[in-house]
Amino acid sequence: MATDSIDLQEIYQFAIQLAKDAGRLILEGSSKRTQSAATTQDPDTKKNRVDLVTETDQAVEAFIKRSIADKYPSFKFIGEESFAGGERVDLTDEPTFIVDPIDGTTNFVHAIDFVCCSIGFTFKQEPVIGVIYNPFLDKLYSALQGHGAYLNQTTRLPLTHPNPPPLPSLGDAVIGVEWGSDRSKAVIEKKGRTYMKLAADGKDVEGGVMAHSLRSIGSAALNYSMVAAGQLDLYWEIGCWSWDVCAGTIIAHEAGGKVYGKGGKPWHPQDLMGHHFFVVRAIADTPGGETGEQAQDRIAKEFFQVAEEWD
Ligand code: IPD
Ligand code: CA
Ligand code: CA
Ligand code: CA
Predict the structure, then answer these.
(1) Would you list which residues are annotated within the binding site for Mg(2+)?
(2) Which of 143, 160, 205, 289 is 20 to 30 A from 149 in CA distance terms?
(3) Is 229 touching ligand 1 by the criterion CB < 6 Å?
(4) Across the chain, what does the average pLDDT equal?
(5) Quick one: 178 and 149 in the same domain?
(6) Where does Mg(2+) bind (predicted)?
(7) 129 has catalytic annotation
Protein backbone atom coordinates (compact mmCIF):
# COMPACT_ATOMS: atom_id res chain seq x y z
CA MET A 1 0.00 0.00 0.00
CA ALA A 2 0.98 3.64 -0.42
CA THR A 3 2.22 4.19 3.12
CA ASP A 4 3.93 7.46 2.19
CA SER A 5 0.65 9.04 1.26
CA ILE A 6 -1.08 8.86 4.64
CA ASP A 7 -2.52 12.11 5.95
CA LEU A 8 -1.44 12.33 9.59
CA GLN A 9 -3.52 15.43 10.32
CA GLU A 10 -6.64 13.66 9.10
CA ILE A 11 -5.83 10.52 11.10
CA TYR A 12 -5.20 12.69 14.18
CA GLN A 13 -8.62 14.35 13.93
CA PHE A 14 -10.21 10.94 13.32
CA ALA A 15 -8.51 9.50 16.42
CA ILE A 16 -9.70 12.43 18.57
CA GLN A 17 -13.31 11.94 17.46
CA LEU A 18 -13.01 8.18 17.94
CA ALA A 19 -11.76 8.61 21.51
CA LYS A 20 -14.66 10.97 22.31
CA ASP A 21 -17.17 8.49 20.86
CA ALA A 22 -15.55 5.65 22.80
CA GLY A 23 -15.78 7.83 25.91
CA ARG A 24 -19.55 8.04 25.49
CA LEU A 25 -19.76 4.24 25.34
CA ILE A 26 -17.64 3.97 28.48
CA LEU A 27 -19.99 6.33 30.32
CA GLU A 28 -23.01 4.38 29.11
CA GLY A 29 -21.36 1.15 30.28
CA SER A 30 -20.71 2.62 33.70
CA SER A 31 -24.32 3.71 34.19
CA LYS A 32 -25.54 0.26 33.14
CA ARG A 33 -23.16 -1.18 35.67
CA THR A 34 -24.64 0.74 38.57
CA GLN A 35 -28.21 -0.05 37.49
CA SER A 36 -27.88 -3.79 37.11
CA ALA A 37 -24.53 -4.57 38.57
CA ALA A 38 -23.81 -8.24 38.89
CA THR A 39 -25.35 -9.91 35.89
CA THR A 40 -24.36 -7.68 33.01
CA GLN A 41 -21.14 -6.17 34.22
CA ASP A 42 -19.57 -8.69 36.52
CA PRO A 43 -15.93 -8.69 35.43
CA ASP A 44 -14.76 -11.93 33.92
CA THR A 45 -11.26 -12.73 34.93
CA LYS A 46 -8.53 -13.12 32.32
CA LYS A 47 -5.08 -14.07 33.58
CA ASN A 48 -5.93 -14.11 37.27
CA ARG A 49 -8.45 -12.75 39.76
CA VAL A 50 -7.13 -9.17 39.54
CA ASP A 51 -6.83 -8.99 35.72
CA LEU A 52 -10.36 -7.74 35.16
CA VAL A 53 -12.36 -7.34 31.97
CA THR A 54 -15.96 -6.20 31.51
CA GLU A 55 -18.42 -6.33 28.65
CA THR A 56 -17.75 -2.63 28.16
CA ASP A 57 -14.03 -3.23 27.51
CA GLN A 58 -14.98 -5.64 24.76
CA ALA A 59 -17.80 -3.56 23.30
CA VAL A 60 -15.64 -0.41 23.17
CA GLU A 61 -12.79 -2.25 21.48
CA ALA A 62 -15.19 -3.79 18.92
CA PHE A 63 -16.57 -0.30 18.17
CA ILE A 64 -13.11 1.25 17.75
CA LYS A 65 -11.84 -1.63 15.62
CA ARG A 66 -14.88 -1.47 13.34
CA SER A 67 -14.64 2.31 12.97
CA ILE A 68 -10.97 2.08 11.99
CA ALA A 69 -11.62 -0.76 9.53
CA ASP A 70 -14.40 1.28 7.88
CA LYS A 71 -12.28 4.40 7.48
CA TYR A 72 -8.81 2.90 6.95
CA PRO A 73 -9.30 -0.72 5.82
CA SER A 74 -5.61 -1.33 5.07
CA PHE A 75 -4.29 -0.15 8.45
CA LYS A 76 -3.18 -2.68 11.04
CA PHE A 77 -4.80 -2.92 14.44
CA ILE A 78 -3.41 -4.02 17.80
CA GLY A 79 -5.85 -3.95 20.73
CA GLU A 80 -5.83 -5.44 24.21
CA GLU A 81 -9.08 -7.36 23.90
CA SER A 82 -8.31 -8.65 20.38
CA PHE A 83 -4.95 -9.85 21.68
CA ALA A 84 -6.68 -11.58 24.58
CA GLY A 85 -8.91 -13.19 21.94
CA GLY A 86 -5.82 -14.67 20.27
CA GLU A 87 -5.09 -11.99 17.64
CA ARG A 88 -1.30 -11.39 17.53
CA VAL A 89 0.10 -8.56 15.37
CA ASP A 90 3.75 -7.46 15.19
CA LEU A 91 4.87 -3.87 15.00
CA THR A 92 5.88 -3.17 11.39
CA ASP A 93 6.44 -0.09 9.22
CA GLU A 94 2.76 -0.19 8.22
CA PRO A 95 0.32 2.35 9.67
CA THR A 96 -0.92 0.71 12.87
CA PHE A 97 -3.48 1.69 15.47
CA ILE A 98 -2.57 0.47 18.96
CA VAL A 99 -5.58 0.71 21.24
CA ASP A 100 -6.62 0.10 24.81
CA PRO A 101 -10.42 0.52 24.89
CA ILE A 102 -10.44 1.01 28.66
CA ASP A 103 -7.22 1.64 30.52
CA GLY A 104 -7.97 1.46 34.21
CA THR A 105 -10.50 -1.36 34.18
CA THR A 106 -10.04 -1.92 37.91
CA ASN A 107 -10.96 1.74 38.49
CA PHE A 108 -13.92 1.34 36.11
CA VAL A 109 -15.20 -1.66 38.06
CA HIS A 110 -14.77 0.17 41.37
CA ALA A 111 -16.30 3.44 40.10
CA ILE A 112 -13.06 5.40 40.51
CA ASP A 113 -12.80 8.24 37.97
CA PHE A 114 -9.31 7.47 36.59
CA VAL A 115 -10.41 5.61 33.48
CA CYS A 116 -9.57 6.35 29.87
CA CYS A 117 -9.59 5.15 26.32
CA SER A 118 -6.11 5.15 24.77
CA ILE A 119 -5.64 5.36 21.00
CA GLY A 120 -2.10 5.31 19.66
CA PHE A 121 -0.94 5.23 16.06
CA THR A 122 2.45 4.19 14.74
CA PHE A 123 3.99 4.77 11.33
CA LYS A 124 7.33 3.22 10.37
CA GLN A 125 7.30 1.73 13.87
CA GLU A 126 7.25 5.06 15.68
CA PRO A 127 4.34 6.36 17.74
CA VAL A 128 3.28 9.51 15.86
CA ILE A 129 -0.28 10.10 17.15
CA GLY A 130 -1.67 9.65 20.64
CA VAL A 131 -5.11 10.37 22.07
CA ILE A 132 -6.07 9.55 25.65
CA TYR A 133 -9.57 10.46 26.79
CA ASN A 134 -10.95 10.25 30.31
CA PRO A 135 -14.72 10.63 29.85
CA PHE A 136 -15.46 10.82 33.58
CA LEU A 137 -13.31 13.92 34.02
CA ASP A 138 -13.76 15.05 30.39
CA LYS A 139 -10.01 15.35 29.90
CA LEU A 140 -8.55 14.68 26.49
CA TYR A 141 -4.78 14.46 26.10
CA SER A 142 -3.49 14.39 22.54
CA ALA A 143 -0.42 14.81 20.40
CA LEU A 144 0.69 14.63 16.80
CA GLN A 145 4.41 14.23 16.21
CA GLY A 146 6.10 17.60 15.77
CA HIS A 147 3.01 19.59 16.78
CA GLY A 148 3.11 19.56 20.59
CA ALA A 149 0.84 17.92 23.15
CA TYR A 150 -2.45 19.36 24.36
CA LEU A 151 -5.11 19.03 27.04
CA ASN A 152 -8.62 19.36 25.58
CA GLN A 153 -7.07 20.48 22.28
CA THR A 154 -6.31 23.98 23.54
CA THR A 155 -4.02 23.92 26.59
CA ARG A 156 -0.43 23.21 25.67
CA LEU A 157 1.33 20.58 27.80
CA PRO A 158 3.06 20.61 30.16
CA LEU A 159 0.65 22.82 32.05
CA THR A 160 3.64 25.05 32.87
CA HIS A 161 4.63 25.35 29.19
CA PRO A 162 6.99 26.94 28.16
CA ASN A 163 8.62 27.00 31.61
CA PRO A 164 8.77 23.54 33.20
CA PRO A 165 10.09 23.69 36.75
CA PRO A 166 13.50 22.29 37.66
CA LEU A 167 13.80 18.90 39.37
CA PRO A 168 16.87 19.05 41.60
CA SER A 169 16.83 15.38 42.64
CA LEU A 170 14.76 12.21 42.79
CA GLY A 171 13.96 13.16 46.39
CA ASP A 172 11.95 16.12 45.05
CA ALA A 173 9.77 13.95 42.81
CA VAL A 174 6.24 12.59 42.90
CA ILE A 175 6.59 9.19 41.24
CA GLY A 176 3.90 7.19 39.44
CA VAL A 177 4.09 3.47 40.21
CA GLU A 178 1.59 0.63 39.88
CA TRP A 179 0.96 -2.78 41.43
CA GLY A 180 -0.04 -4.34 38.07
CA SER A 181 -1.65 -7.75 37.80
CA ASP A 182 1.43 -9.96 38.29
CA ARG A 183 1.18 -10.67 42.03
CA SER A 184 3.88 -13.34 42.16
CA LYS A 185 6.06 -13.19 45.27
CA ALA A 186 9.20 -12.39 43.24
CA VAL A 187 7.63 -9.40 41.50
CA ILE A 188 5.84 -8.01 44.54
CA GLU A 189 9.02 -8.30 46.64
CA LYS A 190 11.06 -6.39 44.06
CA LYS A 191 8.37 -3.73 43.69
CA GLY A 192 7.90 -3.52 47.45
CA ARG A 193 11.64 -3.05 48.10
CA THR A 194 11.84 -0.45 45.34
CA TYR A 195 8.84 1.48 46.70
CA MET A 196 10.27 1.32 50.21
CA LYS A 197 13.57 2.87 49.06
CA LEU A 198 11.73 5.54 47.10
CA ALA A 199 9.57 6.43 50.12
CA ALA A 200 11.93 5.96 53.07
CA ASP A 201 14.58 8.23 54.51
CA GLY A 202 18.16 7.12 53.77
CA LYS A 203 18.92 7.41 57.51
CA ASP A 204 16.58 4.50 58.17
CA VAL A 205 16.73 2.48 54.96
CA GLU A 206 19.94 1.99 52.99
CA GLY A 207 19.56 3.72 49.64
CA GLY A 208 16.37 5.51 50.75
CA VAL A 209 15.69 8.68 48.76
CA MET A 210 12.49 9.80 50.53
CA ALA A 211 10.80 11.16 47.42
CA HIS A 212 7.97 13.65 47.94
CA SER A 213 5.53 10.80 47.33
CA LEU A 214 4.45 7.80 45.27
CA ARG A 215 1.12 7.64 43.41
CA SER A 216 -0.68 4.59 42.07
CA ILE A 217 -3.53 5.91 39.93
CA GLY A 218 -4.41 2.66 38.16
CA SER A 219 -4.00 3.61 34.51
CA ALA A 220 -0.72 3.49 32.61
CA ALA A 221 -2.05 5.86 29.95
CA LEU A 222 -3.11 8.41 32.57
CA ASN A 223 0.28 8.11 34.28
CA TYR A 224 1.87 9.13 30.97
CA SER A 225 -0.69 11.94 30.60
CA MET A 226 0.12 13.26 34.07
CA VAL A 227 3.84 13.15 33.31
CA ALA A 228 3.07 15.06 30.09
CA ALA A 229 1.08 17.59 32.12
CA GLY A 230 3.97 17.90 34.60
CA GLN A 231 1.85 16.68 37.54
CA LEU A 232 3.85 13.50 38.01
CA ASP A 233 7.61 13.89 37.73
CA LEU A 234 8.18 10.37 36.51
CA TYR A 235 6.46 7.05 36.00
CA TRP A 236 7.88 3.53 36.06
CA GLU A 237 6.21 0.25 35.26
CA ILE A 238 7.27 -3.23 34.19
CA GLY A 239 4.52 -5.43 32.82
CA CYS A 240 2.59 -3.01 30.62
CA TRP A 241 1.85 -3.66 26.98
CA SER A 242 2.01 -1.56 23.83
CA TRP A 243 -1.69 -0.60 24.08
CA ASP A 244 -1.12 0.81 27.58
CA VAL A 245 1.68 3.13 26.51
CA CYS A 246 1.65 3.81 22.74
CA ALA A 247 -0.49 6.95 22.89
CA GLY A 248 1.17 8.09 26.12
CA THR A 249 4.63 7.76 24.62
CA ILE A 250 4.03 10.37 21.90
CA ILE A 251 2.00 12.63 24.21
CA ALA A 252 4.75 12.64 26.86
CA HIS A 253 7.44 13.12 24.21
CA GLU A 254 5.63 16.04 22.58
CA ALA A 255 5.25 17.61 26.04
CA GLY A 256 9.05 17.61 26.43
CA GLY A 257 9.13 14.41 28.50
CA LYS A 258 11.83 11.82 27.91
CA VAL A 259 10.86 8.22 27.38
CA TYR A 260 13.43 5.52 28.14
CA GLY A 261 13.88 1.84 27.34
CA LYS A 262 14.54 -1.00 29.75
CA GLY A 263 16.60 0.02 32.78
CA GLY A 264 16.80 3.63 31.59
CA LYS A 265 18.55 2.78 28.32
CA PRO A 266 17.90 5.01 25.29
CA TRP A 267 14.46 4.44 23.81
CA HIS A 268 14.17 2.24 20.72
CA PRO A 269 10.84 1.92 18.82
CA GLN A 270 10.77 -1.85 19.43
CA ASP A 271 10.72 -1.09 23.19
CA LEU A 272 7.04 -0.40 22.60
CA MET A 273 6.51 -4.14 22.18
CA GLY A 274 8.39 -4.90 25.41
CA HIS A 275 7.17 -4.52 28.97
CA HIS A 276 9.61 -2.06 30.59
CA PHE A 277 8.53 1.56 30.64
CA PHE A 278 9.96 4.70 32.21
CA VAL A 279 9.31 8.36 31.48
CA VAL A 280 10.48 11.64 33.05
CA ARG A 281 8.65 14.96 32.64
CA ALA A 282 10.01 18.07 30.91
CA ILE A 283 12.60 19.81 33.09
CA ALA A 284 13.93 23.34 32.65
CA ASP A 285 17.53 24.05 31.66
CA THR A 286 19.31 25.33 34.76
CA PRO A 287 21.27 28.58 34.91
CA GLY A 288 24.22 26.46 36.07
CA GLY A 289 24.43 25.03 32.53
CA GLU A 290 22.65 21.67 32.86
CA THR A 291 20.18 21.17 30.01
CA GLY A 292 16.70 19.81 30.68
CA GLU A 293 17.63 16.59 28.92
CA GLN A 294 20.78 16.19 31.04
CA ALA A 295 18.59 16.68 34.12
CA GLN A 296 16.18 14.00 32.85
CA ASP A 297 19.11 11.59 32.36
CA ARG A 298 20.43 12.40 35.83
CA ILE A 299 17.04 11.66 37.40
CA ALA A 300 16.79 8.43 35.38
CA LYS A 301 20.23 7.39 36.64
CA GLU A 302 19.26 8.13 40.25
CA PHE A 303 16.08 6.12 39.77
CA PHE A 304 17.76 3.02 38.38
CA GLN A 305 20.25 2.99 41.23
CA VAL A 306 17.23 2.32 43.44
CA ALA A 307 14.85 0.29 41.24
CA GLU A 308 15.06 -3.48 41.16
CA GLU A 309 14.24 -4.79 37.71
CA TRP A 310 13.29 -8.16 36.25
CA ASP A 311 12.58 -9.54 32.78
C1 IPD B 1 -3.68 -1.78 33.42
C2 IPD B 1 -3.54 -0.41 33.99
C3 IPD B 1 -2.70 -0.46 35.25
C4 IPD B 1 -1.36 -1.06 34.99
C5 IPD B 1 -1.47 -2.40 34.32
C6 IPD B 1 -2.34 -2.33 33.08
P7 IPD B 1 -6.02 -2.25 32.13
O8 IPD B 1 -4.46 -1.75 32.24
O9 IPD B 1 -2.93 0.47 33.07
O10 IPD B 1 -2.48 0.82 35.76
O11 IPD B 1 -0.70 -1.21 36.20
O12 IPD B 1 -0.17 -2.84 33.96
O13 IPD B 1 -2.49 -3.62 32.54
O14 IPD B 1 -6.02 -3.72 32.41
O15 IPD B 1 -6.78 -1.46 33.11
O16 IPD B 1 -6.31 -1.95 30.72
CA1 CA C 1 -6.77 -5.34 31.07
CA1 CA D 1 -4.34 -1.10 29.93
CA1 CA E 1 -7.60 -2.29 29.00
Answers:
(1) 80, 100, 102-103, 244
(2) 289
(3) no
(4) 94
(5) no
(6) 80, 100, 102-103, 244
(7) no
Ligand 1 near 239 CB (within 6 A):
yes
Determine the average pLDDT of the residues in 179-195.
Answer: 95
Nearest CA to ligand 1 atom 5: 180
What whole-number distance in Å separates Cα of residue 247 and Cα of residue 173?
23
HSE of 207 in the Cβ direction (CA atoms, 13 Å)?
13
Q: Verify whether residue 244 is a known catalytic residue.
A: yes
Give the residue-averaged pLDDT of 282-309.
96
Residue nearest ligand 1's atom 13 by CA: 240
**Does pLDDT of 205 surpass 90?**
yes
For the chain, how many structural domains are there in total?
Answer: 2
pLDDT single digits (tens) 33-88: 654 333 334 556 667 889 899 999 999 999 999 999 999 999 999 999 999 999 99
Given a contact cutoff of 8 angstroms between Cβ atoms, the answer to whether 139 and 156 are in contact is no
From 122, 157, 192, give the residue that closes a domain: 157
Q: Cα–Cα distances in Å, from 12 out to 146, 242, 247, 282?
A: 12, 19, 11, 23
